[in-house]
Design a protein that fits this description.
18 helices, 15 strands, binds pyridoxal-5'-phosphate, Rossmann fold, alpha/beta
Length: 454
């Protein structure tokens, strides 16, 4: 029989609804708390910061299925469905009995999965009559995706870009500016939060936490403006479920069902997106698929962080979020997978991990690049340094299957391509990158500062 390499859905089979996992969870995530009153957050508390529809989605614990607006679905058609690909080349190189599949989110116009939520968020902001939005970006992928989406829906956008990435990844800035956004390196003197951090540490190269503080400050002080976030929050994971919902249908086309589903982990959006529709079937149908997050050893919140209420940003503007965290003052090493450099995880992911419904592994930087290069050489696609963490975890699973002499079906999410990350590959290839594990002491120092709410 002829081998099929790529599985693609017809336009009419692109999902019409997103999947909200919370109603199906036996143990619900703990509530986010208002930073002032310490009371559970209500949607209205979020209205000054987020578009109302997004605030409602964030706290929606009752509706399992949420309709994808037609306008968003029309935009999805530009690049969806994304292909599900059987990685025959990688399987052969590993000489494994495992069947390896990947969902290729790198085919979006911006090169990553981030567009799935950017389009939804820009749409709801526009629908509410807003004219301006702000955001932060780490490696630049979220800012790029939102720039595209803001242009698609006719909004003005300011992006605070972590300074180290602004310097290391100039082409991301060019992409954002090409799609019409204004990009400011963070920390900056344009906000109180930024001024304070620069005063304390003039050479600071920034972090996502700082950039978030700046973007929220501007959003709440500019007329007709709201903030948007590309990961961590539940409504972002919701939008990303379009990935897993497509993958469910595509795996069916392939005649297989995954034994293990893998995603790299920054704040949790691409992992949630590929996993939740399959996890639903563990919860409701008793399937036994394993779900593995792959995070960098230099930013190990799921494998070594604490579960506690913490702020989502450095300045403490956000609600208190119950999550696995390294502490909001954690300043990560300058590893190249910038999109994975965030101190915390989302509330849903954190609860699922506590309940043992998902697993976490940490990946060393050199192992991620080694896996990324093997993937490029066997499957042809240069993966984003973030996605290479998922590939490394998939390789480990495939080699385990070989050792055990057992067939197994592995599905991982290729969250993005690395064509704008070649500086990082260059450094790896010339031997300039190293591994970095966070010392226990640094984790203990940062997490000791957290208030013991739990
Ligand atoms: C942002 C990003 C990530 C990490 O974010 P998650 O919310 O954890 O998905 C991973 N891969 C790529 C390509 C990204 O752009």
């Amino acid at each position: 029989m002829e081998k099929i390499k790529r599985f693609i859905l017809n336009e009419k089979d692109i999902p019409t609804r997103w999947y909200n996992i919370v109603p199906d969870m036996k143990n619900k995530p703990l509530p986010m708390l208002h930073p002032g009153t310490r009371q559970p957050l209500k949607p209205q508390d979020l209205y000054p910061v987020f578009a109302e529809a997004l605030a409602e989605q964030e706290l929606n614990t009752t509706d399992t299925w949420i309709d994808i607006p037609d306008e968003v679905r029309e935009q999805y058609k530009v690049y969806r469905s994304t292909p599900l690909v059987r990685a025959y080349g990688l399987e052969k190189a590993l000489d494994t009995p495992a069947h390896i599949y990947f969902k290729n989110e790198s085919v979006s116009p911006v090169g990553s999965h981030k567009l799935n939520s950017a389009l939804a968020q820009a749409y709801y902001c526009k629908k509410q009559g807003l004219e301006n939005i702000t955001t932060e970006t780490g490696a630049g992928q979220w800012g790029t995706a939102l720039s595209y989406a803001a242009k698609a829906f006719g909004l003005n956008l300011i992006v605070y870009m972590v300074k180290i990435s602004f310097e290391q990844k100039p082409y991301r800035r060019s992409l954002m500016e090409t799609w019409g956004a204004k990009v400011i390196p963070s920390p900056s003197v344009t906000t109180k939060a930024g001024q304070k951090i620069i005063a304390a540490n003039p050479t600071y190269k920034g972090s996502l936490g700082t950039a978030i503080s700046e973007a929220i400050e501007v959003a709440t002080q500019t007329p007709n403006c709201r903030y948007t976030l590309g990961s961590v929050l539940s409504h972002v994971s919701l939008h990303q479920t379009v990935i897993g919902l497509e993958a469910e249908k595509q795996m069916e086309m392939a005649g297989e069902y995954p034994d293990v589903v893998i995603g790299c982990f920054g704040g949790g959006s691409n992992f949630s997106g590929i996993s939740f529709p399959f996890l639903r079937r563990n919860i409701l149908e008793g399937k036994t698929t394993r779900f593995v997050t792959a995070e960098p050893a230099s930013c190990p919140k799921l494998t070594r962080g604490v579960f506690q209420y913490d702020f989502g940003d450095e300045a403490g503007y956000t609600p208190l979020i119950p999550m696995f965290t390294l502490g909001h003052e954690f300043s990560p090493a300058h590893i190249h997978a910038g999109g994975l450099r965030y101190h915390g995880a989302g509330t849903i992911i954190s609860q699922l991990l506590r309940d043992g419904l998902i697993e976490a592994v940490d990946i060393q930087q050199l192992d991620s690049f080694k896996a990324g290069i093997l993937f490029a050489q066997t499957e042809g696609i240069i993966p984003a340094p973030e996605s290479a963490h998922a590939i490394a975890a998939a390789v480990t699973e495939a080699l385990k299957a070989k050792e055990e002499g057992k067939a197994k079906t592995i599905l991982f999410n290729l969250s993005g391509h690395g064509l704008i990350d070649m500086t990082a590959y260059d450094q790896y290839l010339s031997g300039k990158l190293s591994n970095y594990s966070l010392p226990d002491e640094e984790i203990a120092n940062n997490t000791a500062k957290l208030e013991k709410i739990i």
